[in-house]
Design a protein that fits this description.
The complex is a heterodimer of chains A (about 80) and B (about 25).
Chain A: H1 6-10, H2 14-32, H3 37-44, H4 49-57, H5 59-79
Helix pairs in contact in A: 2-3, 2-4, 3-5, 4-5
Chain B: H1 21-24
The chains are: A mainly alpha (about 80), B mainly alpha (about 25).
Chain lengths: ~80, ~25
């Protein structure tokens, strides 16, 4: 699979951008947290596309955001 | 009420249009 570039994403429509990024992001999130990968990926997709692209290229940033999203998700579930 | 489920966040499933996209492009 070719790396997703900023220009590829910029050429896509807004709703396509998130889908393109999501397809790349999901396998990475799955490796970190397989059980909640669907929810965490959905949360991360609410982040700006430009920041998501940086996360795709930076495992450390991605890992940090996944942990952050996980904490928010758990807090949200605790309130339910 | 019964049968309530967590609707947030919109889950992403590979190959399936992401539900959260409804908020971006209605």
């Amino acid at each position: 699979q070719e790396p997703l570039t900023a220009s590829m994403v910029a050429a896509a429509l807004p709703h396509e951008q998130k889908q393109m990024i999501g397809e790349r992001l999901y396998p990475l999130v799955y490796e970190i947290h397989s059980q909640l990968a669907n929810k965490i990926t959905g949360m991360l997709l609410e982040i700006d596309s430009s920041e998501l692209l940086l996360m795709l290229e930076s495992p450390e940033s991605l890992h940090a955001k996944v942990e952050e999203a996980l904490a928010v998700l758990q807090a949200h579930q605790a309130m339910e | 009420s019964n049968g309530s489920s967590i609707s947030w966040p919109p889950e992403f499933h590979p190959g399936v249009p992401w539900k959260g996209l409804q908020n971006i492009d209605p």
